[in-house]
């Protein structure tokens, strides 16, 4: 019984770690997207006069995250 409880506790800890990692990743993505908006590195639907392709904006966001 004790072994089973320890395994459950370990599994619970692993799940909490995954949740924390997902929350961290989500926050980092939101920060990168906000930085893109702040830098006006956006697609045509947001600014027709200073538009970049979806691929370019996506690449900008990925590069921002890699530098974080």
Description:
By secondary structure, this protein is an all-alpha fold. It has a domain at 25-68. Helices cover 75% and strands 0% of the residues. The protein contains two helices and no strands. Helix 1 packs across helix 2 (54-67). The model has no long low-confidence stretch (mean pLDDT 89).
Question: How is this structure best summarized?
Answer:
With 68 residues, this protein is mostly helical. The protein has helices spanning 2-38, 54-67. Helix 1 packs across helix 2 (54-67).
Structural category is mainly alpha
Q: Count the beta strands.
A: 0
Q: What is the terminal separation in angstroms?
A: 44 Å
> Which regions are unreliable across 5 or more consecutive residues at pLDDT < 50?
none
Percent strand equals under 5%
Helix content: over 70%
Count of discrete alpha- or pi-helical segments spanning 4 or more residues: 2
């Amino acid at each position: 019984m004790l072994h089973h409880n320890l395994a459950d506790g370990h599994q619970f800890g692993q799940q909490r770690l995954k949740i924390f990692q997902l929350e961290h990743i989500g926050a980092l993505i939101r920060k990168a997207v906000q930085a893109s908006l702040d830098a006006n590195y956006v697609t045509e639907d947001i600014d027709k006069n200073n538009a970049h392709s979806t691929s370019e904006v996506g690449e900008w966001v990925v590069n921002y995250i890699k530098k974080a």
